[in-house]
Design goal:
Elements lengths: L6 E4 L4 E4 L7 H7 L15 H12 L15 E33 L4 E12 L4 E8 L7 H5 L2 E2 L15 H4 L2 E4 L6 H27 L4 E30 L2 E8 L5 E2 L6 H19 L9 H42 L6 H33 L14 H5 L7 H15 L7 H21 L2 H5 L15 H21 L9 H5 L1 H8 L2 H6 L3 H20 L3 E7 L5 E6 L1 H19 L7 H4 L1 H22 L16 H7 L6 E2 L2 E2 H29 L4 H19 L8 H4 L5 H14 L2 H8 L6 H30 L11 E3 L5 E3 L3 H4 L3 H14 L11 H25 L1 H9 L9
Parallel strand pairs: 3-7
Antiparallel strand pairs: 1-2, 1-6, 2-8, 3-4, 3-5, 3-8, 8-9, 9-10, 11-12, 13-14, 15-16
Helix pairs in contact: 6-7, 10-11, 10-30, 13-20, 13-21, 13-25, 17-18, 17-20, 17-22, 18-22, 20-25, 22-23, 22-25, 22-26, 23-26, 27-29, 29-30, 30-31
Subcellular location: Membrane
Keywords: Lipid biosynthesis, Lipid metabolism, Membrane, NADP, Oxidoreductase, Steroid biosynthesis, Steroid metabolism, Sterol biosynthesis, Sterol metabolism, Transmembrane, Transmembrane helix
Catalytic activity: 4,4-dimethyl-5alpha-cholesta-8,24-dien-3beta-ol + NADP(+) = 4,4-dimethyl-5alpha-cholesta-8,14,24-trien-3beta-ol + NADPH + H(+)
Length: about 900
Amino acid sequence: MYFGGLIRLSSSKSCCWYYPSKQLHERITYRFLSTKSKGPSREKVRAIPFTQHIFEDYHGNGFFSARVTHAGPPQEIFLPFWIVSCRVHARLVQAQVGHSIMRNVYNPTTKRNEVRYDTQWTWVPEQYRWTHERGLVNSIRSGQCLEQATAFTPELFDRPPYSDMDAEYRNVNRTVDPYNLYPATAVRFAKSYIMSTEEDYADTYLRKVYAADQTRFVKIEIELEDIKCAPVYYPAYVYTINYLGRNLRTFVNGFDLHVGGIRTYNWSRVAIVSAGSMAMVMTMTGGVGWGGMSGSFWIGIVLPTVMTSMLAMYFPLISLKFRDWKRQQEIHSADKDQHFWDSDWVGAYDAYEDQQRYRTWKSENQYQQQSQSWGSSSRTTDMDSDPQGYYRALGVSPNATKADIQSAFRGLAMKKHPDRYSDPEEKKKATVQFQKISAAYSVLRDLRIMASNDELNPKTTEYEFLGPVGAFLFVTVLPLLVLFFSVCCNATGYPSQSMFEDYKTYFSELFTIEVAKSLIDPLAMLVYLAFILILVIYSFVLNGDVVPGTKLRNGKVLKYRMNGFRTFHNVFAFGGFLLYQYGSYEPLLFVYNHWVGLVASSILFSYIISLYLYLRSFRSDALLALGGNSGNPIYDYMIGRELNPRIGDFDIKFFTELRPGLIGWIVLNVCFAVKQYSDLERVTNSMALVLFFHTFYVVDALWNEEACLTTMDITTDGLGFMLGFGLYTWVPMLYTLQARYLVDFPRDMSYVELGLVLGLNFLGYFIFRSANSQKNAFRNNPDSESVKHLKYLKTERGTKLIISSWWGMSRHINYLGDWLMALSWCLPCGFGSVVPYFYAIYFGILLIHRERRDDHQCRIKYGKDWDKYCSIVKSRIIPGK
């Protein structure tokens, strides 16, 4: 890259790059720049050593530490600026000058003469005019700087390495940033600066001429003549800090050695100083108790230490986020204010829009020609087998394999999912696109459908979950597992203490007719059915937005009423009203006292509702799920045969998806908390923390109920025992294990434990949310300011795979955050039993299985590119593993 005419202005410790226009300050340059001067030799241009020292001083003093976070060699960037020179014609239109006058005034209150200073204002009797040269180049006009100037040529990018530095600093990457500011904008900024300068000049002049003490109402009019605008490059040395997965940059200005960038704090030093300071204060005030679990010790010393250290750790990221948000608001305001627009910018944007319209017209024209050629072909052509446009919707050819179709669907579903958009208009467009994609995939996922799109209910030719054998195990083993946790876990232990003492006798007595009969609790069954009935009634009577679902392969679009969140708080309002009328909370103790009966009732209800749905799916007008029409009764009963079972407008699958499981989960948690209050006359902080975590999750799901319409549970899978048992039994009866355990084994967490568990949960949420947001932002706009620094691997398909920041640590770093949140749900229970950690274990296995499945699909989708990606990002979920 060559910049003709660029001049390097340098001194012993500073330099800048100056690009004069044709006659801009020619006399100044020739006056100071000797014709014999060849500038400093390339061996003397050594900027890295002293900038390294400045960087370390900036981050290595006091609470700052760069040695821990410094990553990689520095980068030398030439930053572009505009300088403006012109002849200024200024005229002083009006002004007032003030003279301070001392007067003696009698004060009747104090009965004394007092000295007062008044200002006598006078208008300036005449107008002044002056003309002189002004510009923003004055700061580099020094003779010493110009005498050492050298031509800016490509050779400067090939300077010898810094041999006396460490190996990582010897070869410095040098780049030149492009100009993002138009000259007209630079002139506008310069005019504002010159106006301010002239006002200061006029103020100083008036004070001197009229011997004035003050001035006011100074009004200046200026005219700029012979305006010249030229670019200047200032070198900056950039050091990168990898901090909590975010690359923070520190700039050292090569001209004046000023340093900029967010500092990183050494949180351990902050914690030590905070602990010492708080201990000193508490000791001096006599408010600290050093023995045992003294509340003043934990609240006065430990908690502030944890809070300050966490604040010190995350303050750089928080401040950067706030600064970015503030800058976005400024840019947004400037975009709407035409006062900030200039003709160059408007002209360039108009040209850009013309190019975009031309490209759009060209692509549409080519597509229409291609479509016409497809339409004129015979029935044996490829596109003739796609009359509904399903292959075209997924972007695959009619000869694509099932693996190609699955890969295309997963990629498009993640890219076009409505949940990724917050703007209502964009979300509406994404919903329409996602419906088309889902409808196309629901048709093409089966091999037989690929041969004929007219067949609505083809036979299922491929099994999932190990086929009929896996379905039989699913239907028999999982209900027994839920019963095991309910029967064999009690106040003696999780599992029961008697099982450890003599497990053979215990299980021989467990599997008897008498025990089986004891599982049937008519009262518990009545209560469970009443709860389901209340949810059904609320789904009918409560108002809610009616939202269309995805388009089905038979062309229908079903509508759903979004009143799940209203149902949630109405359930608790109605329950609170009944308890108020009863005058006691004792009815809520029914859950704990009849727990086994409630679990057995939910299992029995799951079997019955699944059998009913299986039998009604044989109606002639039923639309079947593509994966549930195998003809094997056990498999179809488990996987679900009918896609959208409805009784009138009541959609059974949509009702089952969120209401019985999630709302029942929180209702049971509240009942267990009341039981603990009944036993202890208080609720432990561990129980409160579990309630907070679970309720936050459920409220978030119900508040965004519309999102479930695009899940595979609604669009693809049938409603059978797998979904029915999972949502009527598995979720409410197993996800409450932590709350139930804390009833039998209550414990209070120390403030340190409380802070650590909260920190782990927020850390998991931060990893999960920031990683997903980063990927979504990169997919939407890779050139965005927040993600343009990310490194990526471009595949042959044109897809970009991120290989830095969060996604450079592992291929599924978001799974790690998700699992950390699951683990934090279990940690309040302590380590007395492994049973409360069943959710974390089960969820971890589920995530590992999902990662293996995604890896298989991506290997098919990307081929060799995926192998290359895996060689760069070696960790699957946990970084370093």
